[in-house]
Design brief:
The structure is a single chain. This protein is mainly α. It has helices spanning about 10-20, 20-40, 45-65, 70-85, 90-95. The protein is elongated.
């Protein structure tokens, strides 16, 4: 790179393109290592904890229903309960985020 301005020269770009194969190989190695870790991790405890936490929220909301209008209760439900389970379906299906 040229000193001071942070802009790469043509030779820097050419070197980066030539070394792209190495970067790709390193990325693939990291992905393989991640797959090994992901297959050994069990999400059962995490999912059970999220479901338990999410199931407590409607009870608390129901006890406080006299203080909120129906529209507000729905909004609170969507913001508090759904946030606990937002990405759980990805874990249940085994899809990587």
């Amino acid at each position: 790179m040229e000193a001071g301005n942070g802009i790469g020269t043509v030779t820097d770009i050419e070197e980066a393109i030539e070394s792209e194969g190495e970067v790709l190989a390193i990325s693939l190695d990291i992905a393989k290592a991640f797959d090994g870790v992901l297959s050994s991790v069990q999400f059962r405890y995490h999912i059970e904890r999220k479901v338990k936490l999410a199931s407590k929220e409607p009870g608390a909301l129901n006890r406080a229903r006299q203080y909120f209008k129906p529209d507000h209760r729905l909004l609170i439900y969507k913001e508090h309960v759904r946030t606990h389970l937002k990405y759980s379906c990805l874990l249940w299906t085994g899809v990587r985020p």
